[in-house]
Amino acid sequence: MSKRNIRKTIFHVFSRIKEQPIELVLFLCASFSIVILFLMLLFVASEGALAFSNFGLDFIIGQVWDTNAGLYGAFPLIFSSVMVSMGALAIAIPLGLGTSIFITEVVPFSIRDIIKSIIELLASIPSVIYGFIGIIFLIPAIASVFGIYSGYTALAASLLLAIMAVPTIVGVSGETLSAVPKDYKEASLALGATKLQTLRHVILPIAKSGILASVMLGFGRAVGETVAVLMVVGNRAQIPVPPWNFLNPVYPITSVIAMQMGEASLYSEEYSALFGLGLILFIFTFIVNTIADIVVRREGKVGGRKK
Amino acid sequence: MTETTKERVVFFALGVPMVMCLIVFFWIVAILSSGAGTLNFAMLTTSALQGGLFEMIVGTIYLLLGAAGVAGPIGILAAVYLVEYAPSGKITRIIDQAINNLAGVPSIVIGLFGFAFFTTQLGFGRSLAAGWLTLSLMMLPIVIRGTEEALKLVPPSFQEASLALGTTKWRAITATTLPSAAPGIVTSVILGIARVAGETAAILFTSCVLITRGLPKSPFEPIMALAYNMFVRIVAIGDPAESVFGIALVLFLIVAVFAVIAIVIRTYYRRRQPWLR
């Protein structure tokens, strides 16, 4: 059969399908994400329920996580996750926002695509490779710069996470920046404002909530990142002294799950504690993402027309 | 300071982060390519039992193609619904929100779910099939968002012309919109593949093992994968990081090839299809 004939046949098969059922099929595909989210919540919650019923509130505020002693207090782990992610944001926000503003406002159109593609490639680098680079380069560098025995620290994890969060921040905030209607910008420039004044008084106020959303999404990414963090963070379940000491090893939630799932026997106390951690993570990122989404949606209304 | 000098200073300051991002990227590439010496062509086709990478590479490709086979059709059809059919109402908004939330679920939680549901509940065991399904959940939002974008770029007049000739809506979509958006759709699937190619946390408990005897004979057998191997060797076995340089490089090349193909297709067709300009 010639290529043309094959194409014709495929076309005929497709177009014969009746309208009503096809719309239903399409709808089911679209609602698949809802079903999956629901199943996820159901399974992770039911496997983790035992941890919450056994340890009660202590599971969240308990200070000691020691599976050998049967102590499951996740507070140091939650603290580690938040600490490492906050550290990452402190680096990623200036880096990401600076980059995205520079790309949309200053860089000429012709090379904009190339730079955006490179940032996109940065997002595609697997986390296990980031972890690998961390061990090869970052760990010895941190150890020698700060004169400490081991470079496996919260700082190493924050640095890696910052690089990994940048593409998210650049992508989302860049999208909102370039969605600001052109005539607003042109009107401001026509009044004699400089590009910088236009940026400060016209573009940024409109894009404000989109930028906020991009930061929140970056935070969600950082909290949920597993492999790269685990490889450099030192994995010790403790709260550093003082708590902002980034040169201490910590043990974020994601790392605990990845490290201990292998040795936990099915339906044991440890197994359900790990799913309990998964549930905490799921709910936390769900809330962060939902707020980010609401922020973006509200902006759609306040900012008036989209392009 | 005049407004113009102020502007120059601020824009210069904003340029610094971008340059830093570019430096970080090229520097990562430089570090990885410095490991090229540990790699030779024979390793790529030698079995893992003799210290090669063959099963890991093929296993990774198996995982990716299978996951794309699941997430591709579902994602594309979902996007067609959202762009062409969905009424603007509450249900559509919930679907939209759910896709965003799915994209934000940490990969380790997807891995936990995959283990509890596919591996244990459905009884797939640690297997290729469980890996396909788990990874497809990570790919799905990327495919849907990318396809939506591609569909929205097709001018409505294409479909209207077809409808005016008396075709049904579905036929108009298959005859005009989908073919015009095809490059964009393919790009989104390939980008989805690139994004999960090095995924480790999601396949950690669901489908991989450190070593197998040859390639899997059915989808219900466990497999080897580059990312998993790298991870377990460093973290669990405690091999020095330098010993997995070759694996890291091959994994990076696979990801880069997929990502670059996607970007090239997109740029090429953006030039060729006049309505995209």
In the CATH hierarchy, what is the class of the largest domain in chain B? Mainly Alpha
Distance between the first and last residues' Cα of chain A: 46 Å
Mean pLDDT of chain A, to the nearest integer, reads: 88
Question: Which regions of chain A have little confidence, pLDDT < 50, spanning 5+ residues?
Answer: 302-307
Principal-axis shape of chain B: globular
CATH class of chain A: Mainly Alpha
Terminal Cα span of chain B: 40 Å
Question: How does this structure look, described?
Answer:
The complex is a heterodimer of chains A (307) and B (277). With 307 residues, chain A is mainly α. Chain A has a single domain, classed as MetI-like fold, CATH 1.10.3720.10. Chain A has helices at residues 3-16, 19-55, 58-61, 75-105, 109-124, 127-146, 154-179, 182-190, 195-224, 227-232, 253-260, 269-302, and strands at 65-66, 71-72. In chain A, strands 1-2 form a two-stranded antiparallel ribbon. In chain A, helix 4 (75-105) packs across helix 7 and helix 4 packs antiparallel against helix 9. Chain A is globular, with a radius of gyration of 24 Å. The relative contact order of chain A is 0.14. Chain B has 277 residues and is an all-alpha fold. Chain B folds into 2 domains: 1-38; 44-276, MetI-like fold (Orthogonal Bundle), CATH 1.10.3720. Chain B is globular and about 65 Å long. Chain B starts with a helix and ends in a 5-residue tail after the last helix. Chains A and B meet through helix 1, helix 2, helix 4, helix 5 and helix 6 of A and helix 1, helix 3, helix 4, helix 5 and helix 6 of B.
